[in-house]
Amino acid sequence: MSRNRITGAARDMANEVGSRLRSVASGAGRPSAAELEEFYDDALAMSQRTRGQAMHLADDALALGRSAYGRGMNELTRQAGSHPVALILAAGIAGAALAWLCSSATRR
Prior knowledge:
The radius of gyration is 26 Å and the shape is elongated. The longest helix has 50 residues, at 33-82. By secondary structure, it is mainly alpha-helical. The mean pLDDT is 80. Helix content is 91%, strand content 0%. The chain has helices spanning 3-26, 33-82, 84-107. The protein has one domain (3-83). It starts with a helix and ends with a helix.
């Protein structure tokens, strides 16, 4: 699952909804009850289809996020195992910077 696929599918859904709304708006002069029921049924079917597509996109995005998180953690673990002293120094510097920021904020 790629970012392009997610954004492309979202763009397609938006275009479909937009084109259907334009067609409904263009025929909204004095529609009959049958036409209104047809518009309602079309809108209901489109919303159900869009919901299904959104659920699939959300599932795909979750899988992509989990995969990226797993790769990042693996790389971080590998780097930390290769350079433990550098990791300790980086943590110390980050802690000192955070303490400095917190202490300077309380002085103001």
